[in-house]
Amino acid sequence: MSIRVEHINKRFGDFVALNDVTLDVPDGQLTALLGPSGCGKTTLLRVIAGLEQADSGRILFNGEDASSADVRERNVGFVFQHYALFRHMTVFENVAFGLRVKPRRERLPDAEIKAKAKRLLELVHLDWVGHRYPAQLSGGQRQRIALARALAVEPRVLLLDEPFGALDAKVRKDLRRWLRDLHHQLGLTSIFVTHDQEEALELADQVVLINKGAIEQVGGPAQVYTQPATSFVQSFLGHSNFFEGRVVSGALQVEDGGLALPANAHADGSRLTAYVRPHELHVTREASGPGVEAKVARALELGALARIELVGVRSGRPFEAEIPKRELAKLALAPGETVRLVPDALRVFPAQEIAAE
Amino acid sequence: MAEAALNRFGSVPAPSSRSWLLWGGAALVGAVIYAASRGGTLPGGLLLAVYALFALLGIALANARSRVLPGFRLSLAVTILMLFLIILIPLSAVFINTAKLSWSQIWEAISAPRAVASYKLSFTASLLAAAVNVVFGLILAWIITRYRFPGRKLVDALIDLPFALPTAVAGIALTALYAPNGWFGSFLEGQLGIKVAFSQLGVLVALTFIGLPFVVRTVQPVLEDLDTEYEEAAASLGASRAQTVWKVVLPALYPALLTGFAMAFARALGEYGSVIFIAGNIPLVSEITPLIIITKLEQYDYAGATAIAAVMLIVSFALLLAINALQVWSSRRTERS
Amino acid sequence: MAGGTASLYARGRETQRGATRDPAWTRRLLIGLGLTFFALFLLAPLALVFTEALRKGWSAYFSALAEPDALSAVRLTLLAAAIAVPVNLVFGIAASWLIAKHRFRGRTLLTTLIDLPFSVSPVIAGLVYVLVFSAQGWLGPWLLDNGYKVIFAVPGIVLATVFVTFPFIARELIPLMESQGTEEEEAAVVLGASGWTTFLKVTLPNVKWGLLYGVILCNARAMGEFGAVSVVSGHIRGLTNTMPLHVEILYNEYQFSAAFAVASLLALLALVTLALKTFVEWRVASARSEGA
To answer: What's the CA gap between B307 and B245, in Å, rounded?
Structure first.
């Protein structure tokens, strides 16, 4: 089922949680809502589920307006951040709950409910814990039970709120892969909320970047990483060196030097913010030419790559460059030495306040 | 709370059948009261109070947005209706009836020598009893949470006895204990010449009994939550045990002690059953304020009883506010640490 | 009563490490002081009730209890509790559902108002109903004309009992429900459960011990209330006497053994209440440590 979110606004008192959000979630895809905490991504998910009422705007399910539909009528599967398993029910009863509370005429016979709950437990590879209580399960197991419970009612869409947030790193990685496979297997339109970019980029077909209640960019994982649409996306995803300056005769003048800009792209005098990823920075000893001057603080060897930490000679800003280890050996940098950093590729945005990472 | 303030335009939910039921009920009650007041037997004050209630209810329901969790309107309606009908409207009778008296009538009732003597006794005895409870309540809470000794669980369970034991039973039991021929009385009065039963001291004993659980039960959870790490930190910094207790543990307990003190004090001010047997109720000496109200009622002096009740209520409400403020303050303090 | 709730969630701390250990003499002194105070103020009155009740032997004890006035007092006490507790149950559940699971304007004010009866003297609780329902009161003349008697009759006793026990169940449930949040209820609603199903199958099982605890406390107070009931009852023997009032009458008539015999029943009730309360606390604590 496709979902369309149209001009959704939501405020909590003076706090704007969602500011005119419009979004399309294509049928059968796995979409990630990614952003820093407090950006409104969970609110958006809850509005889609019907757990929160938007102040204005519409939610369309398969082109049908579902805005005024009750949570119960929306037929969504929701996996809560802390799973919200019913603590006084066995795992089996948790999974069967949604089937048991259906109105009598829609309810399956008891034997079928049992069979279905059992199938779902098998689907999440946990049929052997059915008689236990949630408190007796590990975090990863609870998460899978919560998912099985949500799937039991055959939802039209699956919504997951920080599905891996409460798990430790190792379990998180395993479950991520497992969820990816499950999604392929079921083909259910799914949206999950996360603040972990690695999670979003690895799992999702489509990534939605949200900041301060507004959507910054929507796109595939590779697209948002390599072609960030806004300076927020650029600085939020991955690591970037960041420069601020003014355009003087076609080049960006920053404190520690000048950076070449594409010809005629920016008017002289405009203030710009520029980003360069560490692996896009060249380290040279040339005394003149474009680039910024920085002092080497230290060099770290990490596998095939070496990371060089530097400090701008005039600005005192920290910079980071990543070069192949062989190149580092060739350069033979000494701490304290002044070098020139030349960017390969420069992504430029009009100057503005930078969102905290 | 602020979210409730926002009206959700666009999709105002249709009024449910329950809210129509409620409005119907409101109209019906209003009609009955109106009919009764036409008979000339009902004062306007009550009429006003009832209509204020339903106006409040209406406003509350009109403001209510549709919510995810069901039952908001129903539970709001039940809560407000019962609260008003059983508690607030009857309580307002005290103030409405007092307002009907002239100033001189009020002053005469509340400044009569017996009344004034009772304020002094109620106030002083309650204050002293609460103070005794702070000391022994702290000791009891401390030994229950920090030490292991035989019978600890029994002590812990029986601390709440004053809550569970009907006050009349407590009253006659304490009286029999401290009466001149009682277990304690024969010794105190016969050997030491201290008269407890049928004196002001008896009032103090009864109020101490009744207030004991308050301090213990407010201090105990704080003491249990107080991580021994703080004490270990103090010790590692060279503080002696006494310094640690005095400078680290006690300050953490102040809000709870103060809350317990205020609760015990408030309860003691209004206490009746456990006191009247042991006090002896000698006019100007050992009469407590609630007893003055009862005496006036028995003499059908409703005006006098109401005026004194109004004084007591004002003091109680002030104490309630103080206790609330204390709890807010103490929860802020614990949050900060 | 408010302080009595706290220990429901408390668990004893078993650790006592070197740096936090008090010297032996301090421990002995504090335990000695605490236990002496405990014995003098709590144990002695309790022991005295039973000693005095049985002073004239078991047969006198039972004949005091079998007296018609005593029996009718027991009946009235049971009746008052049988009405007051369900009324409180309805209110307590409605109020706690409202306050713990919803956010709205005036929520804090409402919470304070619910606590109000705790800070009102029981004597005043009785007085307010006299002001409303007595022959000189607001509704009294009209009700009397129509043949309803509230003050100096059973309805007044029930009303006064409801007043003094009003906050008990709500006070137990609100913090408990609040601490459990709303996620489980939301999960149930998303899965299609109706309001009642959500409450009965998800919320209620999670708060059942707290609810039971509130009912126990409420019942104890309902059966033991003296001051408020004393004001509205008129002390009519065999008609408007509850057990605590009957104790008072017997005591004032110098029938000490009979007074303590009836009092011993109430003291037993108190002990049963405390035992149940301890049991419930233990259940809650073990449910907590399971859940943690």
So the answer is: 47
Contact residues on chain B for A67, CB-CB shorter than 8 A: 10-11
Provide, as residue numbers in chain C, all residues whose Cβ is less than 8 Å from the Cβ of B214: 2-3
Residues in Cβ contact with B131 at an 8 Å cutoff, skipping those fewer than 6 apart: B261
Question: How far apart are alpha carbons C38 and C33 in whole angstroms?
Answer: 8
Q: What is the pLDDT of residue C127?
A: 93
Q: Is the pLDDT assigned to residue C271 strictly greater than 90?
A: yes
Burial class (CB in 10 A: 0-12, 13-18, 19+), B237: exposed
Residues B317 and C119: beta-carbon distance below 8 Å: yes
Contact C116 B91 (CB under 8 A): yes
Cα A224 to the center of its chain, rounded Å? 10
Residue A255 has pLDDT above 90, yes or no: no
Residue that the structure tokens 């089937």 belong to: A99
Task: Tokens for B211, please give them.
Answer: 């207030």
CA distances from A137 to A121, A130, C285 (A): 14, 10, 20
Question: Beta-carbon neighbour count of residue B225 at 10 Å?
Answer: 13
β-strand partners of B333: none
B306 and C127 in contact (C-beta within 8 Å)? yes
Distance CA B164, CA C220 (A): 6
At residue B261, does pLDDT exceed 70? yes
Please report which residue ranges of chain A form alpha helices under DSSP H. 41-49, 71-74, 91-100, 110-123, 139-152, 169-186, 197-203, 221-226, 231-236, 325-331
Chain C contact set for B293 (CB, 8 A): 123-124, 127
Banded pLDDT at A9 (limits 50, 70, 90):
very high
Q: Could you tell me how many helices (H) and strands (E) chain B has, helices first? A: 18, 0
Please name which of A71, A28, A351, A38 lies closest in space to residue A210, comparing C-alpha atoms.
A38
Question: Comparing C-alpha atoms, which of A194, A299, C273 is closest to residue B213?
Answer: C273
* Residues with Cβ within 8 Å of residue B85, at least 6 apart in sequence: B53
Nearest Cα residue in chain C from B280: C252
H/E element holding A276?
strand A271-276
Q: Are strands A76-79 and A157-161 parallel, antiparallel or unpaired?
A: parallel
Report phi then psi at A257, rounded to 5.
155, -155
Residue B110 phi/psi, 5° resolution? -85, -10
Which among C183, C188, C291 has CB closest to A135? Answer: C291
Optimal mutation site among A7, A46, A55, interface B, most CBs of chain B within 10 A: A55
pLDDT in tens, A267-310: 788 888 889 999 888 888 887 778 888 999 988 888 888 899 99
Scanning B95-134 for CB atoms below 8 A from C yields 97
Global confidence as pTM: 0.81
Min mean pLDDT across A123-127, A296-300, B190-194 is at B190-194
3-state secondary structure of A245: strand
* Whole-angstrom distance, CA of residue A200 vs CA of residue A190: 13
Chains sharing 3 or more CB pairs under 8 A with chain C:
A, B
- DSSP class of residue B83 equals I
The CA-CA-CA angle for residues A278, A284, A289, to 5°, reads 105
**Partners of residue C111 in chain B, C-beta under 8 Å:** none
- Return the axis-axis angle of helices C122-133 and B289-298, rounded to nearest 10°: 30
- By the 8 A CB rule, do C132 and B93 touch? yes
**Distance of alpha carbon B331 from its chain centroid, rounded?**
20
Residues 278-307 of B with CB under 8 A from A: none
